[in-house]
Design brief:
Elements lengths: L22 E2 L3 E2 L39
Antiparallel strand pairs: 1-2
The protein binds zinc ion (2 copies).
The site of one zinc ion has 9 residues, from loops.
Length: about 70
Amino acid sequence: MQNIEVKKGICRICGCTMDNPCYNPKAGFCWWTDDKETLCSHCDGILKDDSATVHRVNDIPGWEPDGE
Ligand SMILES: [Zn+2]
Ligand SMILES: [Zn+2]
């Protein structure tokens, strides 16, 4: 029996944290959509289907928010 470990403060879909969040030019950085802090806004609802959404921005070398 294996449990997939779900940790508070880590998105269970993309693995983002508040130190390494997701970003969408329209919505900004991700936020938690559940009380347990295991699902972020950018892995839920319309943002997950938006091609402009990037996950875990700190994993992307040289990433910067676009648009001023
Ligand atoms: Zn996520
Ligand atoms: Zn996220």
